[in-house]
Amino acid sequence: MPLKLRPATEADAPALTDILHRAKASWGYPEEKMAEFRDYWRISEATIQSLTLTVAERDGQPIAFSGLSPQSEDTLLVDFLFVAPEAQRQGIGDLLLKRAEDHAHRQGLSRLYLESDANAGPFYEKRGFRTMATRPSEMSPGKEIPLMEKPLAPAVYRVDALNIEVSDEPWAFETKHADAIDAYFEEARKRIPMLWNGRTMKLTGFEFKDGTFNGTCAECSFAAFLAWRDWGAPDASSFNLFGSAILRSAEGALLYGVMSRKTATAGMIYPPGGNLDPTDLTEDGKVDVVGAIYRELEEETGLKRDDVKPAGLLVTFDGWRISIGQLMDVPRPAEELRTEILRFSEASEEQELADMRIIRTRADLEDSAIVPYARSLGKYLLP
């Protein structure tokens, strides 16, 4: 069965406490020290209510968890990160740590902080943490507990060039979990009958350096993507790369779409755009992200390439989501654009948009329905 990530519930408290105790003991601490630890440290229902706890499970059984809480206006505290001994050295701790970074970005925070086990410092150092100070370890007299931080990179960057290829290999996640994916999609279609299992592409590796985004995509089914997304993106080597049409009106306002009930992201607010599919290729076989953006722009809003003026490419990193956005200046007032786009959407068969949200100031980004990458884009572009 595939690994899945999900929020903890109060019913998880005993299982998470067991993981906490067994993971701590795996460092080989003396039994008298472990007895003290077990008496003092446990995951209670109150713990689950007060922290953002994420559970990693396999076959319905928790095997690891993380616990997060805001420490200051710019810092996220990693309170807990524990993996059951039988599940260690499988990349699960690394995955939970990456999702902690994702959570920090979504909260607008720029730093992770944690107090490591005296033995775990090298694990965190390999993942970009640095030791700020130390304090004596109660579990290991003579050893020091490192107090560690990791500054997080900005989310949005200008892009000068794109170079994205398509692999001949199938997406490993889909191949490995084909039966579970099929079953999940059948259940999803019962909830959203309009779901269509077309073909799409997922990013399986990338490098962004000196303004150039290089990457490789693998073709897959929408069903595989949906399962991967809803299971917490458990394959940390893959990303959802998609195109965004960032519309900017004559007065400098941004226009984001409010997705309709006919879509898999109903109620969410973000720029027009969508997933890449196998038809989005140039003559030399490269992924044509910009072409896909203009295709989605016309399909969702009715606006054509000649109606807008390109104003640069932006990449926005949001954990396992990566948006390549084409900033588009439209020499028309925002209200006029909104009216025209909604008229087009209402007349279309798909009716993907329920509304268009006009974003004039950063205060307009506070709506919780605005997805994190769209909020980051707005903060980057608006004064």
From TrEMBL:
- Coiled coil located at which positions? none
- Top-rank taxon of the source lineage equals Bacteria
Return the Pfam families for the record.
Acetyltransf_1
Q: Which UniProt keywords apply?
A: Acyltransferase, Transferase
Q: Name one GO molecular function term.
A: acyltransferase activity, transferring groups other than amino-acyl groups
Q: Which residues form the N-acetyltransferase domain?
A: 3-153
**What range does the record give for the signal peptide?**
none
Q: Would the keyword Acyltransferase turn up in this protein's UniProt record?
A: yes
InterPro entries given for it?
Acyl_CoA_acyltransferase, Bact_Acetyltransf, GNAT_dom, NUDIX_hydrolase-like_dom_sf
Fetch the PANTHER family from UniProt: AMINOALKYLPHOSPHONATE N-ACETYLTRANSFERASE-RELATED, AMINOALKYLPHOSPHONATE N-ACETYLTRANSFERASE-RELATED-RELATED
Name of the protein:
Putative acetyltransferase
Q: Which organism is it from?
A: Roseibium aggregatum
The taxonomic lineage of its organism, from the top, reads: Bacteria, Pseudomonadati, Pseudomonadota, Alphaproteobacteria, Hyphomicrobiales
